[in-house]
Design goal:
Helix content: 25-40%
CATH topology of the largest domain: CBS-domain
Number of domains: 2
CATH superfamily of the largest domain: CBS-domain
Order of helices and strands: HEEHEEHHEEHEEH
CATH architecture of the largest domain: Roll
Strand order of the largest sheet: 1-8-7-6
Shape: elongated
Radius of gyration: 22 Å
Oligomer: single chain
Largest sheet: 4 strands, mixed
Number of helices: 6
CATH class of the largest domain: Alpha Beta
Distance between the termini: 40 Å
Length: 168
Amino acid sequence: MKCPACGSENIEGVDRCDDCLHPFRDLDVPQPKEGIQAHLMLDPVRNLYSAYPASVNMEDSVAHAIDLMKQRSAGCVNVMKEGKLMGILSEVDLLFKQGTDTRDLSQIPASELMTPNPEFVNEDSTIAEALHLMSLGGYRHLPVMREGTLVGIVSIKDVLRYLKENLL
């Protein structure tokens, strides 16, 4: 294997160049070139997340959360307790967790149906990192944090819209 730094020949599989000690560990990591690949691998989530995410308190009713989701045309609300993110209540949670429960939605607290301890990304995380978490967890929404504080929400719709705007 030829060292990209000094050009000397090395035995295949070594971690560093024998002559200049240049590391080889990153040579097999895909590097973004252009277009969609570069946007996904390099662009930070802060370029696309929705600021001022819809939020409710843990004790707020599911009916209130649904009203807020309708008003904001949002697919989810963040569930907070004393300013800290405790969970997410999404359309999917409402469909599958509420199920055949016949109680009045104004009597069910958001905390009962929310997904607790949600995965999140930092605003400096790449779009690829967000998509990876979404794919692994089957999520359509991820909270965006800055130094432990909720600053937004990123959805798969946000990602698709961003790619469309940057590729067309």
